[in-house]
Design brief:
Layout lengths: L5 E6 L4 H11 L7 E7 L5 E7 L2 H4 L2 H5 L5 E7 L14 E3 L4 E9 L2 H10 L9 H16 L1 H11 L2 E9 L3 E6 L8 E5 L2 E5 L3 H4 L4 E5 L4 E6 L4 E5 L9 H7 L5 E2 L2 E2 H19 L7 E4 L5 H11 L7 E3 L12 H11 E3 L1 H4 L3 E6 L6 H12 L4 E6 L27 H8 L3 E4 L2 H8 L7 H4 L9 H13 L3
Parallel strand pairs: 16-19, 19-20, 20-21
Antiparallel strand pairs: 1-4, 1-10, 2-3, 2-4, 5-6, 6-7, 7-8, 8-12, 9-10, 9-11, 12-13, 14-15, 17-18
Length: 470
């Protein structure tokens, strides 16, 4: 059902399919389960190829050449339901209408709205809320065109989402939810336009004038390259804080803020907190948990005047364990993912910097590994505050039961993961380091930017989906 993925759309390119493939590879960190491309020519012919696996495994020079047309969309899938089923792969499309979408986010009232549509005779082929969104969009499009379609989605669907889409032979489009929770950017290169979940996918292909779409904004680029943009439903801007700390790649910018700089500032803030509140801590070396915490760990070490070392080596053939679909798979992957460097940590007081602590699985195993390889002390620092509430907008922790900090004090979490000292970023410092006044921090504060009346039903549906793949 829910998913936090990567999307990209392009129009006006002489090599649309090739650009879409490059975008998939640069947003692969956003989803490792499946990928898909849909293209169209000006005559309205729609070409689709999607499958499970990494982009490099699915697409070849030959099959990319078969995806002709100057416009198209693509999708990297991060699985949170329907794992292993090709029917869950995106883009989703309606053949008769020639409409396709690639979706990033989560619809909270998905189970309720799905029942409504099924009662009206609509049949569903997947368990994805992206398919539901496509049907709601098509309903509005049939009644009043593109902007009415977006309005219909905004009015009927509750959640955090960003969408790129294609209308075969007509153009491509993109839009955000009214609070702009999930990221989506737009760029221009000559007469070509493109949309992406992350700026790096645009800048690497030569797009400039890169801008974030506003909350509730929609854009439609027609085949004659006429561009129309409009804020359809304006809500309070609430971009996801977790994107800056973990999910987005360090090369990207979000809301005009370089992710690398935000993470460096987080490291500096953690260093000041550690120095002021725990001056007695003796530190021999600072090491990051690769890869996302490197900028923070490096900045922290400089601020404290301590050596920065790579004390953990990541197995390059293992994906991001956080976005794997079940706890069992995550635990098995952790056994293969990280290897300590004994000469860096043996006999030393080690300060370990991680981007966040969600379930505690990774933290507990890392601390045990470092101790097994001879560390005298292990201090754990998190650049994200305690996560005590589920995410309802697409990040893969939709139940408080799986969160290590839910219902626990920091001292209790410290004891659970086995650290000699656990230091968290504060919510106030997080907001200041990112540099935005308004963020979605519901997983920290419990203050959700949308109604949550359907959350329990969605969570129940999610657990039922999980049970099928365990």
């Amino acid at each position: 059902m829910a998913q936090l993925c990567g999307v990209f759309g392009v129009i006006g390119s002489s090599q649309a399919a090739a650009e879409l493939y490059i975008a998939l590879t640069h947003q692969q960190h956003r989803g490792q389960d499946a990928a898909g491309i849909a293209t169209s020519d000006s005559q309205g012919k729609l070409n689709v190829l999607k499958s499970r696996g990494l982009a490099i495994e699915i697409f070849s020079e030959e099959n990319i050449a078969n995806l002709d047309g100057g416009m198209g969309i693509c999708h990297n899938r991060y699985p949170t339901a329907g794992y292993g089923d090709v029917k869950e792969c995106q883009p989703f499309f309606l053949d008769k209408e020639g409409i396709g979408i690639a979706f990033n986010g989560n619809i909270i009232n998905y189970p309720y709205m799905k029942k409504q549509l099924e009662a009206a005779g609509r049949e569903f082929e997947s368990s994805s809320d992206g398919e539901l969104l496509l049907y709601i969009f098509q309903e509005g499009y049939a009644n009043g065109g593109f902007f009415e379609a977006v309005r219909n989605v905004h009015e009927k669907l509750i959640g955090g989402y960003s969408v790129v889409g294609i209308i075969a032979g007509e153009g491509i489009f993109a839009f955000k939810d009214p609070n702009g929770i999930r990221p989506l950017l737009m760029g221009k290169r000559g007469t070509a336009y493109a949309f992406a979940s992350e700026s790096i996918a645009l800048s690497i292909e030569g797009y400039n004038d890169i801008q974030d779409l506003k909350p509730g904004e929609a854009a439609f680029i027609r085949k004659d390259m006429e561009a129309e943009r409009r804020v359809v439903t304006a809500g309070e801007p609430r971009p996801c804080a977790f994107e800056f700390v973990y999910f987005s790649t360090v090369e990207s910018k979000l809301e005009g803020i370089p992710v690398y700089q935000a993470r460096s500032r987080l490291g500096q803030a953690l260093a000041r907190k550690a120095r002021e509140k725990w001056p007695e801590l003796e530190i021999d070396v600072v090491i990051p948990v690769p890869d996302t915490s490197r900028p923070a760990a490096n900045a922290l070490a400089k601020e404290l005047g301590k050596p920065y070392e790579e004390g953990l080596v990541k197995n390059r053939y293992i994906g991001r364990t956080f976005i794997m679909p079940t706890q069992r798979i995550r635990e098995n992957a952790l056994k293969l993912k990280l290897k300590p460097i004994e000469s860096v940590i043996k006999g030393k007081k080690v300060m370990v910097v991680d981007d966040s602590i969600v379930r505690g699985t990774t933290s507990k195993r890392i601390i045990r590994l470092i101790r097994d390889f001879g560390a005298e002390k292990v201090y754990l620092l998190s650049t994200f505050p305690p996560i005590r509430n589920p995410c309802l907008y697409g990040i893969d922790f939709t139940s408080e039961k799986e969160l290590i900090a839910h219902g626990k004090t920091i001292k209790e979490v410290e004891q659970h993961v086995g650290a000699d000292r656990l230091i968290y970023m504060s919510p106030e410092d997080l907001k200041e380091c990112i540099g935005l006044k308004s963020l979605c921090m519901a997983c920290i504060t419990g203050e959700y930017p949308t109604p949550t009346g359907h959350a329990k039903e969605m969570q129940t549906q999610r657990q039922e989906d999980y049970a099928k793949i365990k």
